[in-house]
Structures are given as C-alpha cells and as structure tokens.
Amino acid sequence: MDSSTIFLVDDDREFLEGMSARLRSFGFRVEAYPKANFFLDRFDPDRPGILLLDLRPSRSAGLEVLDILREMGSEYRVLFLTIHPEIDRAAQAVETLRNFLLCPLSDEELAARLQDAVIEDRRVREERAETEDVLRTIRSLTRREREVLDFALRGWTNRTIGRTLGIKEKTVETHRGKVIKKLAVKNCVELTSKVLLAGYRPSSTDGSPPKRR
After folding, report:
1. How confident is the model at residue 88 (pLDDT cuts 50, 70, 90)?
2. What is the 3-state secondary structure (H, E, C) of 65-113?
3. Which residue range is the domain that position 166 belongs to?
4. In percent, how much of the chain has pLDDT > 70?
5. At what angle do helices 143-153 and 158-165 cross, to 10 degrees?
6. In whole angstroms, what separates CA 96 from the centre of its chain?
7. Which residues form the HTH luxR-type domain (predicted)?
8. Are residues 175 and 93 in the same domain?
9. At a CB cut-off of 8 Å and minimum separation 6, what does 22 contact?
10. 65 lies in a domain?
11. 79-83, 149-153, 196-200: least confidently modelled range
C-alpha cells in the first residue's frame, strides 16, 4: 500500500477495534478515533487518506465530523458504510453522497473499494498539485512575459503582440520562449492547453487584435 491512511471516526469502540484490525490485515495504515474532536484536532487536509464513516443512525461521531468538514469547505475524500439499501436519511444529512459501501461486504470487496478510493484520491491530489505549480509559475513571470502569455493565449501572432506592446517581434519571440521554458512545455499548443487546464485566463480585454494603421 502507499502512504495513504484510512481514518475511522466512530463512538462504538468495538466497531473501531474490529474494523481497524480488518483494514490493517489488508495492508492499510489505519487511525481510529472514538470522538469527532479527537480526529479534528489532528486533521490535516494535505495528508493523503480516506475518511471511512458508518452512517447508521445510532452513530453520531462520524456525522459530526462530516458536518464540520462541510462547514470548512473541505473536499476530503469520504466513504460511507451503510446497512440500508435506501439511504434517504443519510442523503438528507450530507447533501452529496456517491461513495457508499453497502454492508455486509466481503474482505475482497471492501479492500478493492478502499484501494480504488485511495488511487482516486492520489490522482486528484496530483492534479491539484500540478495545477498549483502551473499557477505559481505564472505568478512568477515578469510583467512583460505575462503580457505576452495573455496575448498568445488569444492566438495572436508575435507580430501583432509586438505592435500592441510597442516592442520588436524578435523580442516577443524571446519572451514567449522564456514562458514556454518556465512552464516546461514544448510549444505554444502545449502551453495553451496546460495553462487553460490549470484554470488560468488572460487578463480582461476585448480579445481583438489591433487594427492596422
């Protein structure tokens, strides 16, 4: 298994001990908490892992954690254990529920579902880290490099950009080359794709190249 941790929060100590032992037998790293505040005191959203909660009505600690994470705006990955095929009550409690584990589950099913969740969590974290890296690199560009980038994203040619900024076409080409190098891409097509996928948008203009005089 990787560095991800399965976090259990439940006020039933027998459940915590039994489920912890079961998950560890699959090779997962497990941390179990009998109270919501115990978990929240150590909660780190940047730490890879899955929060596994039992949604049976008699359990309050798990839903308490879930409510607080929602208030925090956290997108931490959560899986829900339930013994009920119909989950209306749970749905009312948590708004969006898409990760249910309908019990009882065989060891093979439980291990597979958790591993799938760990893999998905890793993918999301890697994408988020890459996005943050791209945006951080853009913020580090010089003012002129950012201007050239913004115009390049609109498909403007070096000549048009140069005329707009009052600089030579060769100078635009140099700035564009530096941007491409800093963002670790091979060409303008890759540059545009990488930057836009990261959520960056050019500074506001009408988007029209200047007319020839």
Report:
1. very low
2. HHHHHHHHCCCCCEEEEECCCCCHHHHHHHCCCCCEEECCCCHHHHHHH
3. 141-197
4. 85
5. 130
6. 17
7. 134-199
8. no
9. 107, 110
10. yes
11. 79-83
**C-alpha 3: how far from chain center:** 17
* Contact of 101 with 80, CB cutoff 8 Å: yes
Same domain, 181 and 125: no
Please give the Cα distance from 197 to 85 (Å, whole number).
38
What pLDDT, in 10s, does the model give residues 49-74? 999 988 766 666 777 888 888 888 88
CATH number of the domain residue 145 falls in: 1.10.10.10
Bond into 210 cis (ω within 30): no
- Residue 106 is encoded by which pair of tokens? 């065989």
Nearest to 176 by CA among 141, 136, 211: 141
Cα–chain center distance at 158: 35
Pairs from 184-193 (Cβ < 8 Å, separation ≥ 24): 188/152, 191/149, 191/152, 192/152, 192/153
Task: List, in sequence order, the alpha helices (H) in the chain.
Answer: 13-25, 36-41, 61-72, 88-94, 107-139, 143-153, 158-165, 169-182, 188-197
pTM across the whole model: 0.74
Residues 14 and 108 in one domain: yes
Cα–Cα distance, 85 to 166 (Å, whole number): 67
3-class SS at 46?
A: coil
The whole-number average pLDDT for the span 145-173 is 96
Select from 15, 58, 56, 12 the least CA-distant residue to 35. Answer: 12
| Residue 8 β-bridge partners | 32, 52
